[in-house]
Amino acid sequence: MNHLAYRTTELAIKTIAGLTRARLNTHGTESIPKGPTIFVVNHFTRIETFLLPYHLHRLTGTPVWALAAPELFVGKFGRYLEQLGAVSTQLPDRDRLMVKTLLTAEACWIVFPEGRMVKNKKIMEESLKRRVFLASQINTDSLNVYFHNSFDKDQVHLLTDDRYNKFSEFVDFAMEKEVVASDGPVLEKDATRLATIFDFHRSRIDNPIAVIANEVEPLTRLQRRISRLCWQPGFWLKRKVARYLMKRALDDFDRDYDTFSILETSRPREVGRPFLIRGDRRRVGVVLAHGYMAAPAEVRGLAEHLGKMGFWVYAPRLKGHGTAPEDLAECTFQDWIDSMDAGYAVLKNLCRRVIAGGFSTGAGLALDLAQRVPAVAGVFAVSAPLRLQDVAARFVPAVDVWNQFMERFHLDDAKKTFVDNHPENPDINYFKNPISGVRELERLMSSLEPRLPQITSQALVIQSREDPVVDSKGTEKIFKLLGSTDKQMVLFNFQRHGILLGEGANRVYRAIGDFLDHIRKSP
Q1: Are 385 and 361 in contact (CB under 8 A)?
Q2: How confident is the prediction for the chain on average, in pLDDT?
Q3: Structure-derived torsion over alpha carbons of residues 268, 274, 278, 283, reported in degrees to the nearest 10
Q4: Nearest of 383, 382, 347, 399 to residue 468 by alpha carbon
């Protein structure tokens, strides 16, 4: 081993990392045994042949040699690999050299075995998505396995619109390599493609799916957990997803409530808890979202009315709500979208069809969901805030400028984080309105407006002409922009924003109930 070669590798790695902003996360270094060691490594590209010896050398302080494909030992690059400690797999004395250097503690070694995981099975695409989602939620701490840090984020999008294309890109890749074929909603593996022994040096091109599967082949405990998911029947899988998401929502709420709630000002826990109302049959479910600065209790009256009509109703808690204004101040509208998506996924795994609905900000989230997820059977929006006429909202731009000015001069104590709120429903709503929350609400509706023509499901829009918070002209614009051919708009004359509570709320309930019953009776 040539120390200059190792130094060259170090400089190359730093240069590449700087250009690509790549980060290397190392886990389990305490498990590396002392003394001569053989490292058995799965790999996907040939670059590991010289990157891994360098990193392991830094960790162990011992030269690390590796077996490499013979065609790499050509010209200057081949001589560089030799100086780095790489040995051709066709070297006649390869095994003798390995034994000698291990016995004398002269070096450690890396070998790159190849393997395969072969299964032959047809599977429904939606069922596969459920299995992938549940696999992504496995507690890896107990398995001593480290997932990529992207798994720290919510993976519920796998059950809704796959908006990051994680599932679709993998399936497209597998179809391109003819490992799977698509027959409508069914995916079928080609067992011959997976079982074929490809040339070692072309397997990463001809059969990359098998190579990717080979990466997790040594992780036997993880494989067992995933195998159990693979063999569970579809109906049980649906219920497992629904139970998992509802429990997670309750656990998240309890954690946030314990973190942010203030004894003197926070509402009781039952105000903020998400809840499920069971219908008489599983034909149609409704995911029902509450408004800004409110909580699921805001829509309980409507939910109970729909439950009596036989609908299943799930009311998710939008992130940051039902706890304290300080919690809401830390949230983005993407957090609210994730909460809505999780609510939809609960009902999608309990009922055959799902309708999205909501009040105020929840109405905007229902429209957003209907645009992104074509499977939504219908959508109703009550007092959707395309245009705000609330006094607090008008001050947001000026307050933002003030806050930026104070931050520039490090005068954080002078920043204006909240404005006072005078709620119509003080038993539910916050008394302080975070400036950042109003800005996130505006961002949600700004992102939604150009996508409204893409909504084609049956739609109902409800608004009060005398709403002091939401401009009815904005609601009329929403109705006109909707791409649905079957849509209706209902106007009331209540002199308040919260028309799902208080006098006359039953009239709103009946209008929504009639709309949902129409969808339920349609094919």
Answers
A1: yes
A2: 84
A3: 160
A4: 383
Tell me how far CA of residue 456 lies from CA of 79, 161, 379, 386, 479, in angstroms: 64, 16, 10, 19, 12
Residue partners of 304: CB distance under 8 A and separation at least 6: 277
Nearest to 291 by CA among 160, 396, 385, 392: 385
Amino acid at 416: K
Per-residue b/e over 41-57, b at no fewer than 16 CB within 10 Å? ebbeeeebbbbbbbbbb
**Is the Cβ–Cβ distance between 296 and 317 less than 8 Å?**
yes
Task: Check residue 508 and give left, alpha or beta (phi > 0: left; psi -120 to 50: alpha).
Answer: alpha
Beta-carbon count within 10 A of 203 CB:
17
Name the residue with tokens 């290397």: 24
List, in order, residues 6 or more apart from 24 with CB less than 8 Å away. 17, 55
Residue with tokens 């308040």: 496
The model's pLDDT over 107-153, given as tens digits with 9 standing for 90+, comes to 888 886 644 333 445 678 899 999 999 999 988 777 778 788 888 88
252-291 pLDDT tens trace:
999 999 999 988 888 999 999 999 999 988 999 999 999 9
Q: Is residue 366's pLDDT more than 90?
A: yes
The letter for the amino acid at 163 is R
CB 195 within 8 A of CB 106: no
Apex 458 CA angle, 333 and 351, nearest 5: 75
Contact 461, 381 (CB under 8 A): yes
Q: Please check whether residue 454 is in contact with residue 427, taking contact to mean a CB–CB distance below 8 angstroms.
A: no
DSSP 40: E
- How far is residue 312 CA from its own chain's centroid? 25
Closest among 326, 344, 348, 346 to 336, alpha carbons compared: 344
Strand, helix or coil at 276?
strand
Two tokens, residue 482: 């909707």
Two tokens, residue 81: 């690999």
Cβ neighbours for 111, distance < 8 A, ≥ 6 positions apart: 38, 39, 40, 41, 66, 67
To which H or E segment does residue 306 belong? helix 300-308
Tokens at residue 4, please?
């200059």
**Residue 498's closest CA among 286, 292, 288?**
292
The runs of H, that is alpha helices, within 311-385 are 325-328, 333-348, 361-372
The 10s digit of each residue's pLDDT in 23-34 is 667 777 888 888
Which pair of tokens denotes residue 262?
Answer: 């203030």
Query: Any idea what the Cα angle at residue 214 is, between residues 213 and 216, rounded to 5°?
Result: 75
